[in-house]
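Researcher: Good morning. I'm working through a list of sequences from a screen, and I'd like to move beyond sequence-only analysis. For each chain I'm collecting a predicted structure so we can compare shapes side by side. This is the next one on the list. No need for commentary yet; just the structure.
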Amino acid sequence: KYAILSHRWMDEGEPTYEEMKLGIAAGPGYEKLKKFCKEAQDYSVEFVWSDTCCIDKSSSTELDESIRSMYRWYANSEICIVHLAQSETIKDIIDDEWTQRGWTLQELLAPRMIKVFNKHWMPMTGGINDKIWKQTEIIIALKTATGIPFDTICSFKPGPRKADEQMAWAARRKTTRVEDVAYSLIGIFDVSLQIAYGEGGERAFCRLIEAIM
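Model: Good morning. Structure tokens for this chain:
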């Protein structure tokens, strides 16, 4: 069993795979990682996983495999711990960048259980799982911020059945690399796509549409 982290990357200061391997990771990103590990202990997991330091990004093969496996890794987690670095209260969620990024769409939909923490690493609800079949304040906030229906947030099934609707969820989201607009949707649509950074966002998106069709 493992816990997985969902968060908005800092502009700089996130720990890397190499820094962790050498034992020299430090800074605000490393502090975030330690707090994630501390909260994960409440779920009796054996391992934790973060996209900042658990992928050797110097290896194109590992990066390719990781991107294509990402949805499955989030779906198979025991708990997804969400850190909202711009939110203090539930009302702040609607403006938090976490709800506007490309990769965090699947990080919301794929896990069976999520637990949301605010900028101070305080839990935003009193429960152990924030993805429950009730119109709670936090579920309503996530629904409002993302435009995703309540039942879909609580029980999403990947695939192209509602392609237009799923594309609408992704349309307002941003990614640092232009190709990730397409790559971040591979798991949502349950398709296979070779990763080719440098091809450009338009070509990557066209290949995604071809795979969906």
